[in-house]
Amino acid sequence: MGFQDTLGHIKSQTDAGTQSQAVLDLINRIIPDRASEFSVAVDSSLSSDGKDTFNVIISN
């Protein structure tokens, strides 16, 4: 029995804006001197199979 069979149905009920702010708050706590270098966007449409998915984009 795999993850999808047991806990894969659990999804966040929190909106994308709140999730983005939570990530930015975490970054600010962990690396406050460089937190301004990060931009965060939560996009639940990145994954079509229900798995956690993320992209890292580096820009100057």
What are the defining features of this structure?
elongated; single chain; mainly alpha; 60 residues; hydrolase activity; 2 helices; Hex-like_dom2; hydrolase
What does this protein look like?
With 60 residues, the chain is an all-alpha fold. It has a domain at 14-46. It contains two helices and no strands. The chain has helices at residues 3-6, 16-30. The protein is elongated and about 45 Å long. 0% of the residues are buried. The model has no long low-confidence stretch (mean pLDDT 84). GO terms for molecular function: hydrolase activity. Keywords: Hydrolase.
Find the count of extended strands (DSSP E, 2+ residues).
0
Series of H and E elements: HH
Low-confidence stretches: none
Helix content: 25-40%
Principal-axis shape equals elongated
* Average pLDDT score: 84
Through-space gap between termini: 44 Å
Keywords: Hydrolase
GO molecular function, one term: hydrolase activity
InterPro entries: Hex-like_dom2
Brief summary of the model shown:
By secondary structure, this protein is an all-alpha fold. It has helices at residues 3-6, 16-30. It has a domain at 14-46.
SSE layout and pairings?
Elements: H1 3-6, H2 16-30
InterPro entries: Hex-like_dom2
Keywords: Hydrolase
GO molecular function: hydrolase activity
